[in-house]
Amino acid sequence: MVPKISTLSGYIHEYQKSVANPTGFWANIADSFYWRKKWDTILKWNFNDPEIEWFKGGRLNITENIFERNLFQHGEQKALIWEPNDPSESIIELTYEELFSEVKSFANVLRNHAVKKGDRVAIYLPMVPELVIAMLACARIGAIHSVVFAGFSANALSERINDAQAKILITADGGFRGNKIINLKETADEALLNSPSIRSNIVVKRTNQKIEWNTKRDFWWHTEMDKVMDEASAEIMDAEDPLFILYTSGSTGKPKGVVHSTAGYMVYAAYTFKNVFQYSSNDIYFCAADIGWITGHSYIVYGPLLEGATTVMFEGIPNFPNPSRYWDIINKHQVNQFYSSPTALRSLIAEGQQWIKDVKMPSLRVLGTVGEPINEEAWHWYHDHVGKNKCPIVDTWWQTETGGIMISPIAGVIPTKPAFACLPLPGIQPVIVDAEGNKLCGNSVEGNLCLQFPWPGIARTIWNDHPRYVKSYFSKYQGLYFTGDGVRRDEDGYYRILGRMDDVINVAGHRLGTAEIENAINEHPLVVESAVVGYPHEIKGQGVFAFVVSNDIPMNAIEELKNSIKKGVSKMISPIARPDFILFVDGLPKTRSGKIMRRILKNIVEHKSDFGDITTLTNPEIVDHLLQIYNSMEK
Ligand code: WT7
Question: Most buried among 53, 488, 563, 568, using CB within 10 Å?
Answer without folding.
Answer: 53
